[in-house]
Amino acid sequence: MTKPQDGKEGKEKLRVYEYAKSLNMSSKEIITILKRLDTPVNNHMSVMESGMVSKVEGFFRDIKANAAAKRAQGGQQAGTSSARQTEKRPEQQGVHTIPRQEQTQQPNQQDRQVTMNTTSNNSSSNGTQRTSQGGSRGGQGGGQGRPAGQGGGQGRPQGQGGGQGRPAGQGGGQGRPAGQGGGQGRPAGQGGGQGRPAGQGGGYGGNRPGGQGGGQGRPAGQGGGYGGNRPGGQGGGPGRPAGQGGGYGGSRPAGQAAGAGTASRGESRSTAPAPRTFGDNKPAGGGQRDFSRSGTGGGAGRSGGPGGQGGNRRGGGKPGGQGGRFDDRGGNFRSRGKNGRGGKSSQPQRDKIDNTPKKIIVRGSMTVGELAKLLHKDASEVIKKLIFLGVMATINQELDIETIQLVASEFKVEEVEVKIPVEEDDFETVEEKDEEESLVSRAPVVTIMGHVDHGKTTLLDAIRSTNVTSGEAGGITQHIGAYQVEINQKKITFLDTPGHEAFTMMRARGAEVTDITIIVVAADDGVMPQTVEAINHAKAAKVPIIVAVNKIDKPDANPDTIKQELTKYELVPEEWGGDTIFVNVSAKQRTNLEELLEMILLVAEVNDYKANPNKRARGTVLEAELDKGKGPVARVLVQHGTLKIGDAFVAGNTFGRVRAMINDKGRRLKEADPSTPVEITGLTEVPQAGDPFMVFEDERKARAISERRSIKQRQSEMGANSRVTLDDLYKHIKEGEIKDLNVIIKADVQGSLEALRGSLEKIEVEGVRVKSIHNGVGAITESDIALASASNAIVIGFNVRPESQAAVAAEQEKVDVRLHNIIYNVIEEIEQAMKGMLDPIFKEVVTGHAEVRNLFKVSKVGTIAGCMITDGKISRSAEARVIRGGIVVHQGKIDTLKRFKDDVKEVSQGYECGITLEKFNDIQEGDIIEGFVQEKVER
Ligand SMILES: Nc1nc2c(ncn2[C@@H]2O[C@H](COP(=O)(O)OP(=O)(O)OP(=O)(O)O)[C@@H](O)[C@H]2O)c(=O)[nH]1
Q1: Is 461 annotated as a binding residue?
Q2: Which one, of 588, 450, 581, lies nearest residue 527 by Cα?
Q3: Which residues lie within the region annotated G-domain (predicted)?
């Protein structure tokens, strides 16, 4: 204790708060002590004169002396453990450190307490911990001693006590439950009397005259410490948090009750040692139990203790007191209180309203501080509870949901609703599970795909205008990336960017927007390459296909040929025993469009597309642009929930608040439910097509998330490639990430394409097979790369090359493109990769250069090149190439490398050496010998 003081003494104008801080106490505690010492100060800003400091010091010394005296008396009983403790606590530890140290140092006590705990019903672990403390302080604690020890023990988490000071107290509080036992256990007076073995009680009691009696007298609980001192168990006793109380208690004259209480805490911490000492001492005769009892007395103290804190604050001080907190901890307190006459009688009971919420909603881990706020508690109370639960936490420590639930139940919260939060930063990856009953049918979302000029746009326009003219005045439609039509009172949403490029781009970006695809095939043209691509893209996305055989108005239209051709792609019409719906239409003449729409509804009905409209909206950005008038606009398809004006949202890496919404008919909407496409304004930047969209509670959060997403994206762009490549294929297989190796095969002629596909599909390694998701004749196109990217596939080019755009796309998307001209090599490469046996890759690293300055011809040896190493170094084991006038004239191994007559392993820059090369004597002056090695590159 002197330490901090000393430190401060040198300082001019040491203020109360500074001094308190140096002792890890509160200003109030110091003020209380000073008052007690008849040296009142006004407030925490008052100057501590040196006399005051020494008075306080003296006060602490007295406590220690008392403790020592008690120790002397009861030390025997204290047993070895206490002895150890004592030894371990050098006085200097100072207020702050002691408590903590004690924590760690008190195994013995723990043991003891464990014994005490027998009665305790608290969780043993806690019990143990606390107990130990209890024990210690408790000495007083002992007091707390509360029977069971728990009380005591638990009550104060030791260290904490120390550290937190109060917590301890509280701990005590809780502890008490047991305590009560204690409290009750001992009949008040008895408690005291009995409880404390003379000595102990003594501890405190000893010091204090009569008081003690009182103290003991005090109803059980009151803190022995205090109790002792304070007569009547006054409030004082109770007031103080147990352990602490003890410490102070002793010092303080009765009455101080609350004040003391506080002080006690302080002290407890500061003085903690003392109390403990006491505790230890006390046991003396009493053994643990005695402690307990005394503790009880102490207990009360604690109760008081808590009170102390509480007391002061919450009225905990009051024995029973117990305000909310006490309550939490238990009736014990109260019980004590009850028993404890003093407590009750002397202190007016301040009832604390228990404002603990009955129900809390937890959305994930939170800090101790946040949890405390949620529970309407002080962080210190939560920390105390945690300590009882065996968790040492600070206010900023994150608690997982399980711990939060435990703490909440400790506070008697009746219901903890855990709402697992969406992984907010990566919200698109989280699938929200909705209760079946919350789901409502939604419109299917349809994409039209097909070969060039087969009539996709005409069909889309025909469907839209048919619908518009029938349902909308004026027939004006807006291009917002998608539109809705209504047939038989049911809606269908069409994405109005036809073609599989947009479709696959969305998929590549992780957006699963389409429910149904319509493959348009012109009846006069037949199945064309892009028809096949479209089919493969739809299949890769596992989306149902409806075939619209278009242009049936044309004289040369032959729908049956189309059906026939499509059977090759597993699209077999129902009338032929398959399950693919074919509808013959004429987009131009608007023939059979209704039937097509009905078929879409049929497929939708079978697949029963549903969404929950009653939650925050999620969706996908279909298009976005910077509009001169409106600023950034995004056309969004709402897929879940309902989007409302004013909603704050994140779209990709951008955020905003919905300022205005219009639908495809140009109408302003206030709300948009699932499957509704809307154009929204209110963004801060332009997102990208395919970006995920989601509403958040407020704009601040949306902004934070969008910022984190931007950072993450930049990082991932710099970093890794998550696509499958042959090089890391085996790893993916091993990790079970890959069930099929998707490949896209492009070849120069159909024959080799078929041969290659046949051979590849026969490969099977560890249950993994090659699956050709798309193949075709011709160059590798951008679309192939998009499909590969969306389907995590490898592209194999046989005698073909990627188009320049495709090469760029492959680079960007990190798609592995393998080019070959020998079928066997393709098969072998894929097989080896699947077996994880790809040959290691080597990289050439040039180590240095030597300039040939002289030549020495030696018979039987050959030509020795007298060289100067001009940069780097040349190693004997390196390979070398001879460069003459910029041209490599030889490449081979170094035969000998000498400095003077000695063989050396390597020669560095600036040194001369003699080099001979294996199987090469035609060296000339002026040649450069370049040394290089092959280094293995990690795949
Ligand atoms: N006779 C006839 N012509 C049609 C029909 N549908 C589309 N066409 C014509 O086919 C041509 C191509 O139609 P689009 O709708 O532009 O075809 P697309 O598939 O969208 O073409 P891209 O946008 O280039 O992929 C146009 O001249 C249309 O008028 C139809 O049902 N009957």
Answers
A1: no
A2: 450
A3: 444-592
